[in-house]
Fold this sequence. Notes:
- Strand 4 and strand 5 (65-69) form a beta hairpin.
- By secondary structure, the protein is mainly β.
- 3% of the residues lie in helices and 47% in strands.
Amino acid sequence: MVSCKTRTMDDAYDIILNDKVKDTATVLTAGNVNFIPPVSAIAVHIYDDSIAVVHNTNKAHRKHVELYNIHDNTLIKELIAQGNGPGEMVSALSRYNNDTLVIWDFMKCNIATIPIKSAISDTAYNPTLRSFSLTPKCMWPYKGRLMAINPNCFRYDKLGINNDGPRLIISDSNYVYKESRKYDIQTVNAVYTDFFISWKNNRIIVFDTSEPRIEIFDTNLNLQKTIYGPELPDEIRYSTYENFGTYVAAEGKSPESYHTFCTDEDFFYLAYNGDFFSRDKTMYDLSTWIFKFDWDGNFVDSYYVDHFIHSMSLSGDGQSMYIFGVNRDGENVFYKTRLT
């Protein structure tokens, strides 16, 4: 596995993205779509240009997952009740890629993998929840186990911090992972990293939601390429604090670089904000750039929308994108837009 070691910008497999990819971005125009997401939605993904996969906030009095027909707004199925009982989740996070939703409860430590086609076609379908034991920053099924982001992969020289664990960790077949090393400084609150897997393209894409960095691995965890940039408008500053141990976290304002993704067989797309959250600047104030890459990490194109994006999905022909986000007035928006 690849550790969090420092590598130079001269490495042949590194790519630097500068502000040109933002300056030359195509401005996307919102188009009409019949579906109106519920106000409780925190993510909306579109399957097969017809089914909306909705993940609801934990504060809503409804199931965590709802499936809708986007043409007539009818509710097709609802899955995973909110609660502390068997088969329920209290506080859920989710990731979606093409036709599969992975959802997990970071409080109860249970996880479900939901293939959307099966959930729709099988009237008796009910997801199976499995217990896991690892830090749930982000997780995907991996060869009968779970792969997750390692919270002990972080380096900050100004404070002399170098937790050089592997970027990705893998559980056993029982979804259990036991850390064998001890770290003096806990970096779980400084590591905000996400990833997704394409088995067909032999790729694992790891993207940092704080620092502007993308790492491309093959599915055997060999690092192929690292993409840096575009740069944030200011340096990220970290500090330590004591809370039953020494922890590190971003100081003052929260960086927001890469945020969410969608893919097809030929390309992957990453949403980029390139700014900081603070008391004076919320997500309502952030714009979004969408960068298009091939599966070798080569930059292909860029797009721009004047609002924050929560989730996005490609149409079946790859020519359009469904975007769910929040506008400058704090209102949810959902629309379909042409990319070409």
